[in-house]
């Protein structure tokens, strides 16, 4: 089984979860056998943040838990609009179900094939300065940790210890345990009136603040080869207020745009082709105020490196500030710049992401945990600082035996945790720590 971009193959045996008890059972077995277990979603990630690191046990195997069959709505509360789902449910199935209830999640991304567990574990974001990531819509969830304990976490709790835990668990890349069910807060069903317009980059730079602050949802797609953007602005129309509006259908994935412009049609065809080509994405996150500086630098880069314009698009979207320790938008308004990299059979284009990384390094951007990244362990430590320390302290508490370890994440974060070797000498020893260079080359393997 391969990930969406076909960068790597999953080799760990997969066990299917059918009922909630299967999860603690699998974790307890792993703890007592000294093996590892992790959960997988739809493998829509661009870095192997999924597979458990090999424990090397002779008689017992490490396992991946697929929650694919653990995918039902558990309950829906009409009064509050809270919906509780099993973590293996796909986002598109949740949306379809919510539509029937006259509700939706407040934000939306580019695709909806992710499983809810994977969606929140990597901090999947949408396209609105007025909305946080999907994790921001969590009301509560159930997590099974590496001690075999169950945690029912209320994200609105005022208890300091629970707040700390939720700040970490809400975006935890599978490092703190396995999430079985999630309750989301929803909003009344809305339609989207989407207006796509071709714009010069200079216009976007000049109108950066107003454009993002005044529209409900914004996506800026920059096409390097043309030095042009398509700016997609969507306004939310609440069903009850627009009963007679001439719209296609409700729901965020059904759009009603203005008359097609030839450039729009052409550029959208490029995006469609690009999605088909199974590109690799590196999505980096900046402070919202850095937008104009970022855009000027990006344009200069493509001017000076015309061969890089083969990468068809850079997708720019904003996020509201949020609470999660590992989030790019932690306590700040932010924007994400997603650099789509076309893969060749050869490695011709493979240093593109590294060049982008170097170009913006001094602007201290953060990373998307489900996408490719060129950050070294030293950079992660510097950029996430105190937040990372807090997160790793919680990881140590919830997973003292390293049952949920993943090689990619350990290479990145393992050495950032000062106590990890002392507490787990055996587990830490089997980690062949990669050099930064090898870590960066991961997606070319
Ligand atoms: C075409 C495409 C478009 C995308 N568009 C966007 C976008 O618009 N915005 C954006 O932010 N991202 C986007 N992504 C990235 C994607 O949303 C994330 O990578 C997300 O993690 C994928 O969810 P998944 O179900 O595939 O999880 P997986 O990739 O399978 O897993 C991701 C992580 O979650 C962990 N995990 C999964 N389930 C559980 C669980 N039940 N308990 C604990 N841990 C768990 C896994 O161990 C792993 O660490 C896109 C990806 C693709 C391929």
TrEMBL record:
Signal peptide: none
Any one GO cellular component localisation term in the record: membrane
Residue intervals of the FAD-binding PCMH-type domain: 1-189
KW Lipid biosynthesis (keyword) present: no
Keywords: Oxidoreductase
Keyword presence, Oxidoreductase: yes
EC number of this enzyme: 1.1.3.37
Gene3D superfamilies in the record: 3.30.465.10, 3.30.70.2520, Uridine Diphospho-n-acetylenolpyruvylglucosamine Reductase, domain 2 (3.30.43.10), Vanillyl-alcohol Oxidase, Chain A, domain 4 (1.10.45.10)
Entry superkingdom: Eukaryota
GO molecular function, one term: D-arabinono-1,4-lactone oxidase activity
Pathway listed: Cofactor biosynthesis; D-erythroascorbate biosynthesis; dehydro-D-arabinono-1,4-lactone from D-arabinose: step 2/2
SUPFAM superfamilies on file: FAD-binding/transporter-associated domain-like
Record-given protein name: D-arabinono-1,4-lactone oxidase
Organism: Boothiomyces macroporosus
Highest classification ranks of the organism: Eukaryota, Fungi, Fungi incertae sedis, Chytridiomycota, Chytridiomycota incertae sedis
Gene: ALO1
